[in-house]
Amino acid sequence: MAQTNTNHDAHGGDSHHIIPLPTYFKIFGALIALTVITVAVTKVDFGAFNAVVAFGIASVKAALVLGYFMHLKYDNLMNRVIIASGVFFLIVLWFFSVLDIGTRAIVTSPL
């Protein structure tokens, strides 16, 4: 009797990509460097672009973690679509929040 491994079939076959240890160290070094850059950027005033710079650095760090530590770089296309749709809706919600804050009237308190 032939047995089928449903867990094996659900995860896209028997090939698992093994990332070499030096790659993990390179990604770790990049994450540490980006953290240092994040701290250094807080000392510089970019005006209205402070949040944009902070979100940009955080997005690069998140992409590295998602791609290598969560193995999405070597995973099937469906997981990429799911992550991309989550990022898309995050951007939509962020856009509407910025639009809402940008169109509010400035109220000054007499106190």
Please name the defining characteristics of this protein.
111 residues, mainly alpha, 4 helices
What's the short story on this structure?
This protein has helices at residues 6-10, 21-41, 50-69, 77-102.
Q: Count the strands?
A: 0
Average per-residue pLDDT, rounded, comes to 83
Q: What's the number of structural domains?
A: 2
Give the fraction of residues assigned to helices: 55-70%
Description:
This protein is mostly helical and 111 residues long. The chain has two domains: 20-70; 75-102. It is built from four helices and no strands. The chain has helices at 6-10, 21-41, 50-69, 77-102. The protein is flat and about 65 Å long.
Write the layout of secondary structure elements.
Blueprint: H1 6-10, H2 21-41, H3 50-69, H4 77-102
Helix pairs in contact: 2-3
